[in-house]
Amino acid sequence: MAQPATPASSGGQYPLSQEVLWRAYEHSHEAVLVSDGNNRIIAVNAAFTRLTGYGAAEVLGQNPRILSSGNAGPEFYAAMWEAIAQYDFWEGEIWDKRKDGSLYPKWLCISVVRDAAGQVENYVANFTDISASKQAADRLAQLAYHDALTHLPNRLAFESQLEHALRICSRENRQLALMLIDLDNFKNINDTLGHHVGDTLLQQVAGRLRESVRASDLVARLGGDEFVVVLPEIEGPLTAARVADKIQMALSENYRVNEHLLYTTPSIGISLFPGDGADAGILLRNADSAMYHAKSVGRNNHQFYASRMNEAAGERLQMENALRQAIAAIGLPESCQFSLHFQPQIAAKSGRVVGLEALLRWNSPIFGNISPLRFIPIAEETGLIQPLGDWVVWESCRLIHELRRLGLHDIRVAINISAQQLRHENLLLLVRGALACYELEPDAIELEITESTAMQNPEMTLNILDQLAAMGVKLAIDDFGTGHSSLAYLKHLPIKCLKLDRSFVSDIETDANDASICAAIIALGHNLGLELVAEGVETEMQSEFLTRLGCDYLQGYLFSKPKPFAEIVAYLQAQPPLSA
Most buried among 86, 287, 303, 325, by the most CB within 10 A? Predict the structure, then answer.
């Protein structure tokens, strides 16, 4: 092994012999690597071999980059070499790789040795493994920022993470919910059975809280029996209410601690950013007020800081429960609360009814007739749209069969398919089974998906739609023009029809922009070989304008409101015969 050059002694020091320097180099506990001016390794000491696993013969002549872990990017190395060039020295933390492939952190110092002309003669690197110190630092950080009992973030970590979440929500105009959770009657358990039992109960509560929310949500213990949950990126207060309801149910289940079967319930106060406060302190204070209100009205409930939120959330949760009960009874005809209404689709040129759109209706014994605009979003949020949508497909096919029995043929029924249905592997079997059960050909139905649904998971969507089209089912894009679609993608979908959204149709008489949009979409659709259906046609002028533009089919109150099955049968039977 080549011996390192003897450095010139600095002023005021006795010169050291080569033997002394050699012993210091070879027996140092720090790994030492010396490279030449071209950064080729010319010497390493014994500590280097112990630390890296490489013997001297394996690395001599190599570039030190053979030790690189690959964790540091080019910007890191660029900054390091810039400092070496400017100061002839650099030190810092870096991750490297041993011969066996294991990674480790090390503290690295690099010095430059120059000759009399100022040219780089050697680079001298010495480094130590700092794994142990980093582990100790990580342990200290864990103790500093996490609750020792539950291992959840503590108040210090919570405040820091909440501030970070608020900055993001403020910058990106998002909403955030903060829930303060206090366990009812926990003091009685602690005082009666002892702190050991109480501590075990708190650990189980922490686990249930963590399981009740998303990985991206923050759960922390503030102290005692007080916990906090932060929900960033919520859609609105109803999302917070649904999560609070889930937490409430999870924490209210019994707890087994040794031989004890224990019960405790949560009182939850909720504040919302930005409506209830713009900073962490105000949000926490308002959530605390809401939590004490939850205790004052009976415990084991959740309350919003703003009372109007409580009313809206209460009604929404009541409606969700009613919807679940209605869907549970969907297979019992005498108890079924759902029905289908049908709105005709008219051929623009002939005025003939060529199709019907099936529209879901819910008549609840609690809420009465509920607009789909209210209950469909709830069904989508809770996953209830899957069984509800399946029922719509089966019921539509049953009623189409009934139309055929009554002599009303050549009427296609359009059925709306939700995003969840489209993603479900059961959709193809559902459609095939319903058609076969009622002895219908695939062209008896048309499946409509919204523009935004078509753009979700394009590869899977295309695969499913291709299979439906291969069966002979007609496919349509609903609400076209309201989403953010790629025409390059849409043109590859096996769709046959575009439905022009009613928002463009309603103002075509008075808004030149809407009239131009309608004209452009109709021309675009025809250029792609698609049929066009205009929704929301309510006046003769709208009908005439759309017909002049070449729109194929019209649908709206001008022709008929959605009607129950018996009334749509009468409507169809009243149509003049084809020869008229």
Answer: 287
